[in-house]
Design goal:
Elements (H helix, E strand, L loop, with lengths): L8 E7 L3 H12 L5 E4 L15 E2 L6 H20 L11 E5 L2 H17 L4 E3 L1 H7 L10 E5 L3 E2 L2 H14 L3 E3 L4 E7 L2 E7 L2 E10 L5 H7 L7 E10 L3 H8 L18 E4 L4 E6 L2 E6 L32 H14 L8 E11 L6 E4 L5 E5 L5 H18 L21 H13 L23 H6 L2 E6 L2 E7 L23 H11 L2 E4 L4 E6 L3 H6 L13 E7 L5 E11 L2 E6 L4 H9 L9 E4 L4 E7 L3 H5 L17 E6 L2 E6 L8 E7 L3 H12 L5 E3 L1 H11 L14 H4 L15 H10 L4 E7 L11 E4 L2 E12 L4 E8 L9 E6 L2 E8 L15
Parallel strand pairs: 1-2, 1-11, 2-8, 4-13, 11-18, 21-31
Antiparallel strand pairs: 3-7, 4-6, 5-6, 9-10, 10-11, 12-15, 12-16, 13-14, 14-15, 17-18, 19-20, 21-27, 22-25, 22-26, 23-24, 24-25, 27-30, 28-29, 29-30, 32-35, 32-37, 33-34, 33-36, 34-35, 36-37
Amino acid sequence: MPRAELPDSARCVIIGGGVGGTSLAYHLAQLGWDEVVLLERSQLTSGSTFHSAGLVGQLRGSVSLTKMMMHSVDLYRRLADESEFDPGWVECGGIRLASSEQRMEELRRQAGWAKTFGLPLELISAAEAQEMFPLMSTEGVLGAAWLPTDGYLDPSQLTYALADGARRGGCQIFTNTRVTGIEVRDGCVRGVQTDLGDVAAEVVVNAGGMFGAEIGRMAGVRVPLLPMSHQYLVTQPLDAVREARSRLVPDSGTNLNHERGHLPTLRDPDLLVYWREDGDGLVMGGYERDSAPAFMPAGTGRVEAIPPDFNGRLLEEDWERFEEITENSRRRVPAMNEITVTKLINGPEAFTPDNEFCLGESEVAGFFVCCGFCAHGLAGAGGIGKALAEWIVDGEPSLDLWHMDIRRFGSQYRSPAYTHARIEENYETYYDIRYPNHERSAGRPLRLSPVNAWHREHGAAFGEKSGWERVNWFESNAEAGDETLRPRGWSAKHWSPAIGAEHRATREAVAIFDETSFAKLEIEGPGAAGYLEGLCDNRVARGVGQITYTQMLNSRGGIECDFTVARLAEDRFGVVTGTAFGNHDREWMRRHLPEGGGVRLADVTSQWACFGIWGPRTREVLAPLTPADLANESFPYMSVRETTVGNVPVRMLRVTYVGELGWEIYCPTEYGLGLWKTLWEAGQPHGIVAGGYRAIDSMRLEKGYRVWGADITPDETPYEGGVGFCVKLDKDGFVGKETLARAKADGPRTRLCCLTLADPRRVALGNEPVRIGGEVVGRVTTGGYGYTVERSIAYAYLPPDAAEPGTAVEVEIFGTWVPGEVAAEPLFDPRGERIRVS
């Protein structure tokens, strides 16, 4: 194409002509952006899109992702009427089999999720599954889940249809145009260089699929993904398929409707295999336990090395690695013994370390990422394009997308070796059941507290978060626990009686917790106070030495951050937030930094060790160790002091996340082991116990303390999430204030409520449906067992008129509706007397 055809500038440049890039262009056009240029290095769909198996399943583990999948299906249903390119959407339904009792439990749990999302998923018998997919054997099958609105489509035709809609909306698409560089100046993207000329742009989107990491490097951005070799085969037509399709009719009397003549998609995760029809043949693929990166040997530290001419190509067939999948497929579908293979497709698919999409604005302003689709990009493409287009146009997403946000990845993912280890583990366990509190093993241990060796010597059971090794509990405390409190079902996985013992020790005496992994930020400069007041809904610029619990909001009034702010000096503030939220909160604040300086933001997480010490005997432990006066009058709740403990210089914050008297004590990391040992030895006469994060979680549930990302998210206001007491609408303007004022006047759309269940051994895990009077009205956000109140506790969003204490509810836990009621919160120490005890 002539050089002159490329415009000199555009409002947005999209790099990549696969299904992600074209969907984004389509949705930007729908929002009125017509100065959009899409650049494709070869032809549309020539990356990973063209060899996708094309399955579309909607039910996922989060509200936002499921909504995105449902939007995709809504879009695919109508695209054939909008465009001359028919994506071939076949709404044949989808079946997921359970060949073990554990998998059947998973399906029961997913059936509960589906109720909260409005998806018509049903649990069916093995015989009913076989009626719809006659080729399958029912041997070993205990049951199945059936979702009639799932289906499949043609990936290339979908891409052409989206591109057609984008063009009609004003987008210009240039194929055979290779991006050779991305201009970044003063921390902002300025445009792209191509082999056909330069294009200036205020927004550049990396929709490069498997080339996403390579494109990111052009802008100085690490995109943690790896193209993995993913295989499936296509058979020649089979008489067995023809016969099966001819027998299928709508509404067979089992209320399991499907399109006439189409087999549903079929997944057998216990056998690692999936199927869909292909005319009168079959497509069959799966996820091998022996994975392989597409373009590099496993275990090396090199960056991805994709050949520059790898366009519209496949990898070499690897029958040896596919043998396990082939053998498993014959067990479930005996006709696989009779097939003639047309082709074994071995194509590179870009995977991320956690099997979630990689979306959003990077640390380079204006440079967005839209890749890492993890082999379910066809299912999500419609929703991905919509969500990212809204993000670009409005400056923030319309849904809670943190678990897909590129900023969720910490600096450890700059390492290709670490990234690859996590991705390979993720791929090889793709179909594994994810039990609550499941821990991954790849790349561990990595980030260690200075007390890590002590923990190991004392029987710690470790978990991992954001690369940190963290104590879940100390198994050495298990003997002091109560085995009869073991919850039923999945909640008993990764559980120990030590959790209850550590909980009770905190309530009754004193316990110490290693919270070094907490993310810690410092904001300083002459404009620091005004800057924070402009972001926080609470009044944080209080006197030096005071601590404030607050939120930061988006323009919709939703909760973007939830943390404490300590005023350390007139021009310096400290923020402490959750381990997994440090990147998010730092980036949210960084994007709102004032131009021209005056405010400096620093992540000081690694500089400080942090130990929480709580319980009614805490003062007795600390008083002999510190010159600080620990009385309420001189060291009140929600205040901070610089002092010493033993020989260690410390910063003591009188705060709690467990609802007991105590302090978080911070010291420079090199003093951490010495401080821990000092506290431990001083606590021996007072019955001190070392505890872990699982005990903290059980205590915070009893106190009604919220978890950001679950109980409160960017989708709910403080009034809806039960933290409206923080909001100071009488202070000067802050982000989200006007929306929040309107929301308060209109009243909450929903309310987070505390529920207690009649059966204390039934524990909710999250996303379970809640019904009142037989009608599903909400979903659980978090749940657990309260060892002091001796109740199973769940938090759930309910309609405001159902939020009154005493309202009878039911929560579906693995297919059983467990009765309960809305409770007044907090359940423990409602007047907060233990926190402020003299």
